[in-house]
Design brief:
31% helix, 192 residues, alpha+beta, five-stranded antiparallel beta sheet
Length: 192
């Protein structure tokens, strides 16, 4: 117990933990409804604490992991191909955040590089875009999500793109697809 208090004091002195954190935890709580204001306060406090924990983890890594070891391969790099939702490397699939795929207008067939950091975070980078062409179609929605119909062909699109543009079924949408390769997915360029 004494050792933990000393550790916490050293983190406070280093500025990693604000002095205002109340370490004591109430063990007996009465059952009652929590107001929205209280809930909002609790959420913001939780976000602040998560940020503090992240800073502490970073400080610990800086102290414990020698600089040379970190530079010589503390991270893993994987290259693969975007399939519309995931980056594929052989049989293995890596999840690509939909917001990143939408914002970057990734197209099925684009080559990506994934850097997996020491803390487990994924950082994607588009390294070789496939040749592209633009099409215009009508947005449709079914039980699987959104798709854009162009003449007799339909392309699935990420929900993140559709919600970003506030599009709805029946809207005319500009999409990007691979020039040569057949694809099931398209990137959304925007509303027409």
């Amino acid at each position: 117990m004494f050792e933990r208090k000393r550790e916490l004091k050293s983190f406070i002195v280093l500025g990693l933990i604000p002095r205002t954190i109340n370490i004591k935890i109430k063990t007996k709580m009465k059952k009652k409804k929590i107001s929205e204001a209280k809930l909002s306060t609790l959420k913001s406090e939780l976000e602040r604490l998560e940020s503090t924990i992240l800073r502490i983890k970073q400080a610990i890594n800086e102290i414990l992991i020698p600089e040379m070891q970190r530079e010589s391969g503390g991270e893993q790099v994987v290259e693969g191909v975007f399939d519309g939702e995931f980056m594929q490397k052989g049989e293995k699939k890596y999840p690509v955040p939909p917001n990143y795929a939408s914002k970057s207008k990734l197209v099925e067939g684009d080559k990506l590089k994934l850097k997996i950091e020491e803390d487990g975070s994924f950082i994607y980078k588009q390294i070789e875009p496939i040749e592209r062409k633009n099409l215009i179609g009508i947005l449709e929605e079914d039980e699987k999500g959104f798709k854009v119909k162009v003449k007799d062909k339909t392309f699935r699109v990420l929900s993140a793109s559709i919600t970003y543009y506030n599009a709805k079924a029946g809207d005319e949408i500009a999409i990007i697809v691979p020039e040569e390769k057949e694809s099931k997915w398209a990137a959304v360029e925007g509303l027409v």
